[in-house]
Amino acid sequence: MTKLLRPTTLVSILVVLLCVVMAFAPQLIAPGDPLAGTPRDRLLPPSAEHLFGTDSLGRDVFTRVVHGAWLSLAAATLAVGIGGLVGGAIGLLCGAARGRVGTAIDFVVMRFVDVLIAVPGILLALIVVATLGFGPWSIALGVGLGAAGSFARIMRAQVLRVRGEEYVEAAAVLGVRPLGVLSRHILPNAARPVLAMAALELGTAVLSVSAISFLGFGVAPPAPEWGSLVSAGRDYIATSWWLTVLPGAVIVGVVLAVTRLARVIGESR
Amino acid sequence: MNDNILEVSDLQVRYRVGRRRIEAVRGIDLAVPRGGIVALVGESGSGKSSVSQALIRRLAGNGEIAAGRVVFDGQDLLKLPMKRMRAIRGGSIGFVPQDPNSSLNPTLRIGEQLVEGLRLHLKLGREEATERAVRILGDVGLSHPEARARQYPHELSGGMKQRVLIGMAWSCEPQLVIADEPTSALDVTVQRLVLDQMQQLAADRGTAVLMVTHDLGVAADRAEQVVVMRHGQVVDAGPTAAVLHAPTHEYTRDLVAAAPGLNSVRLTASAAPVATEASHPILEIRELRKTFTLRRPGAAPEPFTAVDGVSLAVPAGRTVALVGESGSGKTTTARMAARIETPDSGSVLLDGQDVTTLRGEALRQLRRDVQVVYQNPFGSLDPRMSVAQIIAEPLRAFGLGGRREQLTEAKRLLDAVQLAEGLADRRPAELSGGQRQRVAIARALALSPKLLVLDEPVSALDVSVQQQVLQLLVDLQAERGVGYLFITHDFGVVRQIADEVVVMRQGRVVEQGPAERLLSAPEHEYTRALLEAVPGTAAR
Amino acid sequence: MTRAGTALRLVAPKVLQFAFVVWATYTVTFLLVRVLPGDPVLAALAVQSGDATTVDPEQLAALREQAGLDGSLLEQYLSQLGALLTGDLGTSLATGRTVVDMIAGVVPGSLAVAGLALVIGVLTSVVLAFLASIAPWRWLRDLLVQLPPLGVAVPAFVTGLILISVFSFSLGLLPASGSRSGDSVILPAITLAFPVGAIFFQVFITAIREAEASGYVFTAEAKGLGRAAVFGRHVLRNALLPSVTSIGLLIGYLAGGTAVVETVFSREGIGRLVVSAVLARDVSVIQGVIIVVAVVYALAALLVDLSYPLIDPRLRPGKAAPKPAAASTFSIVPEADALTSATTDPKNGAAK
């Protein structure tokens, strides 16, 4: 419990909670309309009135960042969900089958998993986006497939590690049935590293989703999304730094918080 | 100048773990006379290793020396600047580390690792140093020293690596050598040779030695003076004969009484044993054979016969000790007897029934009669389960009783292995090694098996705990009439528990017979060598 | 066993593995493109003609044939695989040029950025790790270890834009875009070096920590060696193996990273090629790039694999050194001592 009370961990938890609020109830934090701009107020630097300044159409950047959280975070979460389910299932099956009947199956499947890991996730996501059409949900599917490889690998490694533990052999020698060994000993003990991995992948997914949106394959304007917000500020980089730096900082903050929590999950025992 | 090369006073060492501070060494005094051998003895957690590391100011990252003086050859080492300290490390104080297998750099040749120190401290040129390194390797008893110098650590056995490390410690003519558990990772016969080598070097060169060990037998055989540590403090110190042979301090007396090598006798059950027909074997194995395939990078797979035609029988309610050094095949034999591994040929008979080829559900049903206790009490219990869940698991697996009955039974078993009922809700991580091993024994007994296969069940435990667990096993056997196949490398333990002894070497049985006869009058020369190598024998 | 035999035994599986990675990559991308709903040819046409309300069926068929997308799925799979074996990656739906030509034209630019980024990232990591290892104060060591990994969290498009605004617009030192002048490679490479260096640093520093906690480093220090000698001779060499392994992963990361960086800096390169292919829904170009990246990755993995024995003598094939009976045979027996492989003595726990 004391680990949760460390200041960096507390801040990280706070950031994640804030993200949840931003995603589900953005009005609570930024009551304004993210799409309505006042042309008179275009490209204003950050001030008390406009925390993150305004963009070229006079829209409040802070409001747009808060309202953009839903798409960015939902797509990233969906990606991790897809990757976790697909990859986790593959890894579990391979890990459990190995050494019994499935050594050959495991070998072949894992070589394909190697390919998913070898091919850069962003290229994999881009080919999915090109085939399926633009938009946050195809990005999520693409990024998720890219992550599936890593999930499969860690799940399998964990299952094999736990299977090699003496208490698993001891359980079988005690007379516990194979399925009982899997559900009572192997899965619970393999879960934590996989969870930590999921948290870590969430950070990576936020980065990938925003990168692909930045490239212009995400949501159609004018709907706000973090990557496309940074992209929109690109043309004004010489004069209006806040358009890129502040939304960028939000991405960094969220990724750092999630990564930090991933470490906390991974290390506590 | 005085007669002591090393004088330590009020040394305190502490470790920082999170925000907590752990006082590992709480102000100890000790002295090592010039040319003398002093043993620093203690059980795990006594702080003895921290002392040895503090003496050369090389504690683990989170450790610090809180106070004290370490006067070596007239100067306080704790006050020296790091640069001067480095000249003393390796130069005037040699260090023999604990585990030879991890203490040599795997990516450098043996010779190069010796040369480093020679060039640094003796300012030798590269060629001169290389020559000297080869000579040192010869001095510590390695054959082909020139070839050895060009080999990498993984090409040498554990005993050879420890000789290299000993050579390294003595390479720059130090005045003091600190040896931290120098032989605890080695087999007894190798241990004996390595210790002989160290003693020889110390005598030839007049080097003082501070030997840190958990093994009272080693201390009794080798040291002139003994310092006994417990909980970071010195509890007893003096000449070896006085401290170990006529212990006055209570803790030392307990330690000496528990030390298997020093004076072990067959433990007797606290209560009268139940009657069993001793003639009737509960387990019989005949001509077991098992071959593994060894794979090395770049080489063709080679077959390796781990067990080569082993036969033995365990009478009901009796203990058969299967003894051997590492690589003898004793563990593989035990695993086949417990039907964890399947033999290539031969047969396993349980209570007269052939169980050699049982599989699936039939094999699972066999577990009601045969259970296993593993060596490592840290590894064999699921860390996520409570003690009660662990003990009740076999009952649950065979659907014996409801949840409540299982819990009651688990508590009854806890009582049987002399653990408090309050431990039922703890997790393994919250228990000591001895407690965990008791839990493992309770779990193995839950189904009232006829045979227990115990694989080195006490070798990971401190001697005092070891003694208690062995006594428990003897009592349980008397109560329940269960047969034990007891795997061990330690003849001290054999003496305490075995009715019959089987000695294995390189996959074959060398000698077997009743414990009394075999221990007092061994027929085979290997058995004799093993018995003589048990530390403490010289002092008996 | 002959020398050639040994070499063959070592190399043959790796070459097979290489061929497998390329084949599997092709298969995975083929399946992705075909299993997902959407007709790549229709989509590409739609982009080309602005709004594809009417599609000439003949033109469609011609285009399909040209792209190798006619016939049944299996025929397509096999004919493309056959082409792949001869080094043909197909034809772009959008431009009509061969994919190989298109990729070959832009590879040098990307290679320069990625290569420089890798060098900067790895060198900086090694220097920081060395400083972290020898820094005299605990707080500085902690800082040097904990700061670099944060680089992973900063998106490359943000770093790139910030670098442009500082070095190009404010200081006017380096060009903000383009790929003509030699110094135009510097800012993109630095941008990419942040995440690449951060990833490498994590692997590297973990390996170093592990080596520093090992028995042989204790032995080296007990020998009296100074910090620099311990780091250089004992820590570094042993930390190299896991670090070299991670370089394979970095190459994949670099290839993906070029898409963003080349867009930010408006440079010609593989990444830009992919981005414009996605815009044109030109699937065959993306597939081609992915296969090329997989080939590079597999080559890197092959080199890494072959370099292991150079770094770690334990992985070298047994050579004919005198090997008396007692040597090592026992330590590699499946049963080390007990059912577990506990070889060290757990009894000697100092307070931990």
Question: Would you mind describing this structure in some detail?
Answer:
The complex is a heterotrimer of chains A (269), B (540) and C (352). Helices cover 73% and strands 0% of the residues of chain A. With 269 residues, chain A is an all-alpha fold. In chain A, helix 5 crosses helix 6 (136-164) and helix 7 packs antiparallel against helix 8 (178-214). The longest helix of chain A has 37 residues, at 61-97. Chain A starts with 6 loop residues before the first helix and ends with a helix. The model of chain A has no long low-confidence stretch (mean pLDDT 88). Chain B is an alpha/beta fold. Chain B folds into three domains: 4-258, 3-Layer(aba) Sandwich (Rossmann fold), CATH 3.40.50; 283-369 and 449-539, P-loop containing nucleotide triphosphate hydrolases (Rossmann fold), CATH 3.40.50.300; 388-447. In chain B, helix 14 (387-397) crosses helix 15 (403-416). Chain B starts with a strand and ends in a 7-residue tail after the last helix. Chain C is an all-alpha fold. In chain C, helix 5 crosses helix 12. Chains in contact: A-B, A-C, B-C. At the B-C interface, helix 1, helix 2, helix 3, helix 6 and helix 12 of B face helix 1, helix 9 and helix 10 of C.
Give a quick set of tags describing it.
heterotrimer, A: 269 residues, mainly alpha, MetI-like fold, 10 helices, elongated, C: 352 residues, 67% helix
Element layout with pairings:
The complex is a heterotrimer of chains A (269), B (540) and C (352).
Chain A: H1 7-24, H2 26-29, H3 61-97, H4 103-118, H5 121-132, H6 136-164, H7 166-174, H8 178-214, H9 226-233, H10 242-267
Helix pairs in contact in A: 1-3, 1-10, 3-4, 3-6, 3-8, 4-6, 5-6, 6-8, 7-8, 8-9, 8-10, 9-10
Chain B: E1 4-17, E2 20-33, E3 37-41, H1 48-55, E4 63-72, E5 75-76, H2 82-88, E6 93-96, H3 110-122, H4 126-139, H5 145-149, H6 158-170, E7 176-180, H7 188-205, E8 208-213, H8 216-222, E9 225-230, E10 233-239, H9 240-245, H10 250-258, H11 260-263, E11 281-294, E12 302-315, E13 319-323, H12 330-337, E14 345-350, E15 353-354, H13 360-366, E16 370-373, H14 387-397, H15 403-416, H16 433-445, E17 451-455, H17 463-480, E18 483-488, H18 491-497, E19 500-505, E20 508-514, H19 515-520, H20 525-533
Helix pairs in contact in B: 3-4, 6-7, 7-20, 10-17, 14-15, 14-16, 15-16, 16-17
Chain C: H1 3-35, H2 40-48, H3 57-66, H4 73-85, H5 99-134, H6 138-146, H7 156-170, H8 186-212, H9 215-222, H10 227-264, H11 270-279, H12 283-311
Helix pairs in contact in C: 1-12, 5-6, 5-8, 5-10, 5-12, 7-8, 7-10, 8-10, 9-10, 10-11, 10-12, 11-12
